[in-house]
Amino acid sequence: MKTVTMKVTGLVQGVGFRWTTQMIAQDLGITGTVKNNPDGSVSIVAQGEELPLEHFIKKIKASPSVAGHVDHVDLNTVSDAEKFTRFSVVY
Questions:
Q1: pTM beyond cutoff 0.90
Q2: Which of UniProt's keywords are assigned here?
Q3: Which residues are catalytic?
């Protein structure tokens, strides 16, 4: 099990980004959270097996929302992370 954090910038708020991110995560068996940040970016914590997590990251970089676009993803691996049981949108 691997955990990553992502800070995603671009047109990622107000375009269904969090909802589509949650749908992709659930389809791939990824757990974690997604939330909007005050600076207009989106933060994601994603946890899963290596291959599904790689697919998830690729989909995020390609922008899961057709109405938005991703300019940059700051990706970090986390050790000793909290264990998630589902993927949820944090408000």
A1: yes
A2: Hydrolase
A3: 18, 36
